[in-house]
Design brief:
Layout lengths: L1 H14 L4 H9 L1 H4 L7 E2 L7 H19 L9 H7 L4 H12 L3 H19 L5 H7 L5 H12 L3 H13 L14 E2 L5
Parallel strand pairs: 1-2
Helix pairs in contact: 4-6, 5-6, 7-9
Length: 188
């Protein structure tokens, strides 16, 4: 019976890209298997056991945010994201806290502000209130606070700065203003 079960497990592992020995290595090397956005920089190698689990969860979250843009939903909850990345809310929260030194709301706001900046760069005629609504914020005050926290300027001053640079025909990107996410593995 055990022999048969072992054979079935070997077949399952081979279907997902390896044998039982390479399965753990595939999880460790998820960065190579599932490339994430350029702004995510890996500072240290993955650690054993607990760190691997949280790194793996964090990478799945970042991939999910990049590909599906769930942060555009103003009613997004941590439980919704946890369900979509196949973990529970406690593990998800811990992975974000340890890996990015942020909480879930700060991570959502980071992506929302980045989205709002891209909106303005693509549609220079958009108003600040429209940027707020389209990027998933519930209120204008939350948008102003998150924008100032991420960029260091109010949305109005940032827009004025962007317009001045565009009039000088400078090449402008969001990355000029918003800091990239950096995964900090040293605490995992």
């Amino acid at each position: 019976m055990a022999q048969r079960l072992y054979g079935m497990l070997e077949r399952i592992f081979s279907l997902i890209g390896g044998n039982r020995h390479t399965l753990r290595n595939n999880q460790r090397n998820v960065k190579n298997k599932y490339p994430i956005a350029d702004e995510v920089e890996i500072k240290t190698p993955l650690l054993e056991d607990e760190g691997d689990k949280f790194n793996y969860i964090l990478r799945r979250v970042l991939i999910y945010f990049e590909n599906n843009e769930p942060y555009l939903d103003p009613n997004l909850k941590i439980a919704d994201v946890a369900k979509n990345v196949a973990t529970n809310r406690n593990y998800l929260s811990r992975a974000i806290n340890l890996g990015l030194s942020r909480n879930f709301n700060q991570l959502c706001n980071y992506y929302r502000v980045r989205y709002a900046c891209n909106l303005y760069l693509n549609e220079a005629e958009i108003k600040v209130l429209q940027m707020c609504e389209k990027s998933g914020f519930n209120s204008n005050s939350a948008f102003l606070s998150a924008f100032n926290s991420c960029i260091g300027l109010s949305p109005a001053k940032w827009c004025k700065n962007i317009n001045a640079r565009l009039q000088r025909r400078e090449n402008v990107t969001v990355e000029d203003y918003i800091k990239p996410l950096i995964i900090k593995n040293n605490r995992l």
